[in-house]
């Protein structure tokens, strides 16, 4: 179950992913589910997996764009937390989603994280070339 | 944690946002996380933030469109609940998401809300011109 | 509330929906909320509701595509669990979402399911022609 549901705001001009990492560090969250993120960004970089093992391409998107939604997790690799988030962005003329590399908040990002009562763990998967969840 | 997870349906022809508000009022939900919404709409109006402070543009989308997903929260401003939802819509030829202003349900909208065991609060932020979450 | 939050991986080459069904069967999950799915697919089939009662069109999407997010539920119809998922997919050049008919995993699909402490139920709705949630 979720032993605690954390809800917090990332503010204008702040980088989204590093501020989520900072919140998790300050609140001792080592394993959790990103239940949702909504808000807006002034710019964002998304990664797209092109082929295995682990070949990504990065694309920069200028804002303003709505953060429509986001999902993902906080999990331990060895003893360090890895935050893995996919995010959906949209304006009136474009709509794209992918692996969140970085994003600068425009008005707000409202983040909800469900902290788990057990540990999620990742390890390198030689087939995909990525740090994958261990069941 | 979520003291209760509410799951309910909004029916054909009903307006989505006002029916979520009504459900929250009838069930005494003053603070919660919109975990998800899926279904379909026959029309929807989305808002897009264009610049700060708080300048939005509204766009109407005719359906039928799938409700792919939605996220957001129920939070108190003063003592009144504010429901803030971003929603992703898609058809075969168009895909857009943004701030849910209103939408009319086509077949169904299946709504899941996690009711929090503490209060979320909003207040006006003079920089963004919007009612923002207070940490 | 969520009596348990299940997090698991569907692996490269596996079909997403049938593997979620298998996980639920093996872990005795008869009612729950799909909190999220992220990852990537090498192909996917989405259904789009065109008109009532229950007329869908299916579209196949070749990958690689990111699984940006997904939402839905596990609910009982009579005594059999039905898994209903809407999923958002995106590449650099296309972004679509809809009812998940089937999808083949590329690198991973990280699935989070909140198991409910009560039963969700569906029954056929003669107006929509679909199995709809019962409040």
Automatic annotation (TrEMBL), chains A, B, C:
This is PPC domain-containing protein. Residues 1-135 form the PPC domain. InterPro entries: PPC_dom. Signal peptide: none annotated.
């Amino acid at each position: 179950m979720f032993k605690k549901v954390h809800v917090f705001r990332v503010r204008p001009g702040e980088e989204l992913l590093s501020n989520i990492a900072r919140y998790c560090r300050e609140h001792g969250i080592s394993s959790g589910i990103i239940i949702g993120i909504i808000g807006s960004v002034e710019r964002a970089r998304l990664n797209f997996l092109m082929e295995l093992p682990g070949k990504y391409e990065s694309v920069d998107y200028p804002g303003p764009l709505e953060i429509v939604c986001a999902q993902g997790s906080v999990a331990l690799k060895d003893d360090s937390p890895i935050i893995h988030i996919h995010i959906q962005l949209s304006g009136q003329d474009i709509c794209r989603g992918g692996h969140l590399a970085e994003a600068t908040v425009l008005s707000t990002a409202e983040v909800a994280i469900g902290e788990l009562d057990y540990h999620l763990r990742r390890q390198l998967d030689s087939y995909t070339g990525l740090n994958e969840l261990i069941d």
